[in-house]
Amino acid sequence: MAGVVYHKHRVCIEANVLWQSGIITRSNYDAMVKRRRLTVVRRGGGADTPALVSWNDFPEHLRAEVKSALGGDPRDLAQRNILTEYLEYDASAEVFFSGYRRADGDFLPSETVEKYIANAGVLNAIGRYLETVSHRRSPAGSQGLWETLSDSAVRVDRSDWPHDLPVHWQRLRSKYVRYVEEGYSSLVHKGFSNRSAARVKEDIQTAVLQKLLSNNRNLDNGQVSELYNLVASASGWKTISASTVGVWRERFSLEASPGRLGIGSMMNGKLMQHRRSRPSTPMNMWSMDGWVAELLYSDSHEGRSTYTNRLTVVVAIDVFGNYPVGYAIGSHETPELISLCLRNAINHVEELFGSRYRPHQLQSDRYQIKKLTPVYEAVAKYVTPARAHNAKAKPVEPFFKDVNRYCQLHYANWSGFGVTSQKERQPNLTEWLKSNRHRIPDRSGCESQLHALIADLRRQGREAYLDGWRQVPESGRLVMSEEDYLYYFGDVRRNRRGEIITNTLQGDGVTASIGGEEHTYDCFDLSFRRHAGEKWILHCCPESPERVLAVNAEGSLRYLLEKKYVQPMALADRQPGDSEALKRVNDFNQSAIEYLTSFNCRRDEIIEKYLDDLPALNDTLQKFCITDSRGQHKDNLSASRALQAARQLEGRQARSAKKKASAARQDFADEHARYIDEKVDMGKYCEL
After folding, report:
1. Facing residues of 519 across strands?
2. CA distance 4 to 41
3. Is 366 within 8 Å of 347 (Cβ atoms)?
């Protein structure tokens, strides 16, 4: 309100109101000021800058007249901020500052954006107010007006308008003038909009600093600044402090991570990760990996005992419920140990479900991937090795953590968590081993612990695993053939020197010693007998020697052989099933005979037809004694001779007829010549 202002945190009355309203005269005002009856907060500086008198120290006998002249208590009137009615939210300012990018490419902090929007709103309100008073005052040169505006800006509610505009009227006026000229960008601090004060601003300087931050030695900020300053001193650059390095380390944390922490850490901690759901039913996905079991065992070598030995366990889990479907224990991870793990898994599936089934998908690491790929492909329909340096992709890794916690709870020889774990979480092995070495089991005892561990985990998850399998339709179950199982997971017989033992097909079959017993095998595939000269390598399972797989040395031939049925000689010793087995062999032999007979007949028919077209090969018939389809050779030979005689007679008759025709033609020519000589006088023709 005119006449009342809030100046320097005080409610003030414009002095000219006192004499213009007739409350006191100008001379009385000057006298009261001289006698300090009135407190002057601001001396007058012209029509636009009237003197201000503090209302708090105003004489009591004049207060009623002032209130009457002003139309109310000055305190109440001063609370009405002159900018309040002009404040409006600037949506354009929000768009500008929210999308503003700093010199480093980042956006402005949210608090800064809110502050800049408030600054723009207050300055816009000042501009609107100045438009209302421009017809009677000059805003650019009015100190009193700008002091009033400064006080009003200070009293704006900061909870709604958290601005940080200058308090002093001159700085506020300069801020407003620049805002009118440059717009929203004038409100952005120069530290956000340029790098003029940066100590590292050239490409070569930035590259050197980035190189040091990416060093594989993972240097701290002080070490980086020390090395950088060596280069800076030689190059004439500004030196930097450790705090400056800290700012740059944060800015280039992504670019420096491969060198500082390694590719694996970068991919697991910096790059985007997939979020996946577990398989809906069993046998959809297996995940396998090797685990160095955190269980210690004792070992003796050359009279010296050690107590910190650990075994390796290759485990295959069904990701549905993390059920340990297969495992194998060894001193270290090898392709053979991995094959044993998968063999155990297939056999355990047969125990659970009654048949050998394959999973739809198998996930492994990339250890010996080229050598093991054929084995993996025989086990699963799809093989998906995990990406290198990406432990998060393998569900078996969290399984190992849970198993390790199980070992921590149940076994005194537990060796602790991984080397990257905090020291406070590790067991006190150094002191414990000194007095408890006798409690460390040997290798067989440690293996027994691991067998018991897997058995317990299987027992806990068996029912849920079987319930899940019952939900799998028959069409979704993949059966593993016995041929594939024996080829990839069967044992190969070897002699004491480790050499592979081979067998050949004899009249009674293939005889081999398996599991300490001699067995004879044969095959009901007739083509097997075409390869009687091959040396066969037998793949077998000693626990179930009823069937073996015969493979030649090149691996190009595979035949599934079954153990020969032993028939009793005496009819009195016949048992149920003997007749069926005998009939099966007889039927096979009969079909073989029929095949061979049919084959030979077709062969002879082809040859006979060919000989008919080439008489010159008739002697071949006699030489090779080739029979016809009725098994006759002599009849064919006699018929051939008769046919040959008939053909010779026909040839002679043809030649005789040809000679007679030629003689007849010659006789006609001679007779015609004689006739010409008798009837025609050639001399007359010569005279013409």
Report:
1. 512
2. 13
3. no
Cβ burial of 552 (10 Å; 0-12, 13-18, 19+) is: middle
pLDDT at residue number 649: 65
Report how far apart the first and last C-alpha atoms of the chain are (Å, whole number): 165
Angle between helices 221-235 and 203-213 (to 10 degrees): 150
316-373: pLDDT as tens digits = 999 999 999 999 999 999 999 999 999 999 999 999 999 999 999 999 988 899 999 9
Q: Identify which of 328, 331, 339, 329 has the alpha carbon closest to the alpha carbon of residue 373.
A: 339
Token duo for residue 314: 């290759």
Contact in structure between 294 and 375 (CB atoms under 8 Å): no
CB distance 392 to 414 below 8 Å: no
The rounded distance, in Å, linking the Cα atoms of 325 and 126 is 77
Cα separation of 276 and 337, whole Å?
29
CB 115 within 8 A of CB 164: yes
69-97 as b/e, with b when 16 or more CB fall inside 10 Å?
ebeeebeebbeebbbeebbeebeebeebb
Paired residues of 593 in beta bridges: none
CA 296 vs CA 289, 416, 418: distances in Å: 20, 10, 14
List the one residue out of 249, 262, 205, 199 whose CA is nearest residue 223.
249
CA–CA separation, 413 vs 193, rounded Å?
A: 62
Contact 446, 322 (CB under 8 A): no
Q: Which two tokens stand for residue 237?
A: 């650059």
Q: What is the pLDDT of residues 138-176, one digit of tens each?
A: 444 577 778 878 888 887 878 788 999 998 888 999 999
* Cα 548 to Cα 525: distance, rounded to the nearest angstrom: 14
**The two three-digit tokens of residue 60, written as one number:** 């009591």
Looking at residue 8, its amino acid is: K
> Which residues is 284 bridged to in the sheet?
none
Please tell me the distance from the alpha carbon of residue 38 to that of residue 53, in angstroms, as a whole number.
Answer: 7
Pairwise CA distance, residues 527 & 292, whole Å: 48
Are the C-beta atoms of residues 268 and 390 closer than 8 Å to each other?
A: yes
If you average pLDDT over residues 430-450, what whole number do you get?
Answer: 85
Contact 404, 392 (CB under 8 A): no
Side by side, the strands of the sheet bearing 312-318 are 323-330, 312-318, 286-292, 361-363, 382-383
- Distance between CA atoms of residues 465 and 214, nearest Å: 48
* DSSP letter assigned to residue 528: G
Tokens at 92, concatenated:
């354009």
Q: Which amino acid is at 183?
A: G
The residue whose two tokens read 């098994």 is 631
**Quick check: 192 and 108 in contact, CB under 8 A?**
yes
Which of 42-46, 381-385, 475-479 has the lowest average pLDDT?
42-46
**DSSP E strand stretches across 43-152:** 52-54
In this predicted model, which residue has the larger pLDDT, 647 or 13? 13
Q: How far apart are CA 46 and CA 143, in angstroms?
A: 10
Residue 504's SS3 state is coil
DSSP three-state, residue 299 = strand
Tally of CB atoms within 10 A around 631? 9
